[in-house]
C-alpha cells in the first residue's frame, strides 16, 4: 500500500522559513524570511489535511486551489503545483510575500482551528513560484492570435497589471497609462523591499512588456492626456488608479514641518532603493536617520512606516494607535516583526495636536480606553480626560489611510458616477461603470483594500471586457 503523503500535521509541526535576526534585518531592506529548502517545503505542504470543504480556498479572494497545489508540492510535482497556482493567480509570488495569510487562508485553516498550527500556505506559495522562475517555467503570456481591438488601462498597480496580463493573452492590444515612472503602483513605491523586493515586481512588468503590453509612463490622465482622448483611442477602458489621497490630521500644529504623509515617506525610501535621486530624502525631510519617529495609525501602511524608520537609523520609533493590539487592522505577524526590530507600540493613544515653533518637536498624546463595539464590531475608543502627555518627536508620519481622488472633476467627466465616498460606482460582477465600455477595479472601487482583491477584480474585469468586445452590437452602439 502506498504511503500516505498528506495529513502529517499530527506528527510534523508547523515550521515557517527561518527569519534573519533582528540585528541583520535592521541593517538593510532585504526580505526577512529565508527560502525553504525543497525538502522543508515538501514536508510543510504534507501537513495539509486535504479537507472536504477547504476553508483556506473559500477564504482566499482568488479562490486559489490551495489543497491541490499543496498535495502536488508534497509529492514532488512542483511544476504542476506552479501551473495550478498560476491558473487562478496572476502574481502568486507577490501574494505569497505580502498577503495577510494570518487573516485569510492560514487564519481559516482547519488544523489551525484544531490547535495543530496552520499549514504555512504563503511560504509554500512563495517557494513554488520562486522555483518556477529559477527553472524557467514562467512563460511570457504572448497570444496565439492577435486581435485588432485595443484596451486602455489607467493605473499600473496590481489590478491593472492582472487585467493587462489576461487581456494580452487573449490577443487584445493593451496600453497601460500610469502617473509614475515605473509600473507596479504601490507594489513598486508603497510596499518596502523587506516585504517585497523590487526585482520581483520588475520582472513581472518586463514579462508583460515582452508579451506586447505597451506602457505609457509619467502620464497623468487629466493633465498629459484627457480621459476623452483615451476613450477615443481605444475600444474599452479599465480604470485601476487605486486611492492615493491621504487622510489628513487636524489639531494644533498640524502644519508644522516634520509632519509628513506615509505615502510620501515610503515612496521616497523605495525610490532610494532604485538608486534614484530624491531631493526630499537627501535633504533629510523624509529620512528618519537620527530622529525620534512617531507613526500615527494601525494598518499595514503604518507597519511599513515604522519598520522603514528602523532601517533608516531612527533614534527611536513609536507607533500610536487608538485601540489595543487585538482591535488593530494591521497584520499581527507584522506587529511581531516590528516589535522584534525595536518598534515601541503605544496602544490606546491618539494625537490631540503637535508642539513646536517652525518644526515639530512633540506630539500631544491623549490616552484612550475601549468602550462598546461600533458598527464594525470593534470596541470604540473613548477619551480618558486629563491623561494627556507630550511625546517628543522629530518626525511624525501620518498613516491614517487613503481616500479616492475626485476623478469626475479631475478628468472632466461628470457622467462617471461615484459613490458618496468618492469611489467609482460599478457593477460588482462585471465591473462596468456608468460609461459604456468603461470598467473599474481595485481600490478606486473598494476603497483601500488588499492587493489580492485588486488582482481578483482585474481578472474578472478582463473577462467582462472580452465579453463586451465580442458583442458586435454593443461596440456598434457606441
From TrEMBL:
Keywords: 4Fe-4S, Iron, Iron-sulfur, Metal-binding, NADP, Oxidoreductase. GO terms for molecular function: 4 iron, 4 sulfur cluster binding; metal ion binding; oxidoreductase activity. Its cofactor is [4Fe-4S] cluster. Residues 25-136 form the Dihydroprymidine dehydrogenase domain. Residues 1-24 are annotated as: Disordered. The keyword Nucleotide-binding does not apply. Pfam families: Fer4_20 (PF14691), Pyr_redox_2 (PF07992). Residues 150-458 form the FAD/NAD(P)-binding domain. InterPro entries: DPD_II, FAD/NAD-bd_sf, FAD/NAD-binding_dom, GltD-like, Helical_ferredxn. PANTHER family: GLUTAMATE SYNTHASE [NADPH] SMALL CHAIN, GLUTAMATE SYNTHASE [NADPH] SMALL CHAIN-RELATED. This is Dihydropyrimidine dehydrogenase. The lineage of its organism: Bacteria, Pseudomonadati, Pseudomonadota, Alphaproteobacteria, Rhodobacterales.
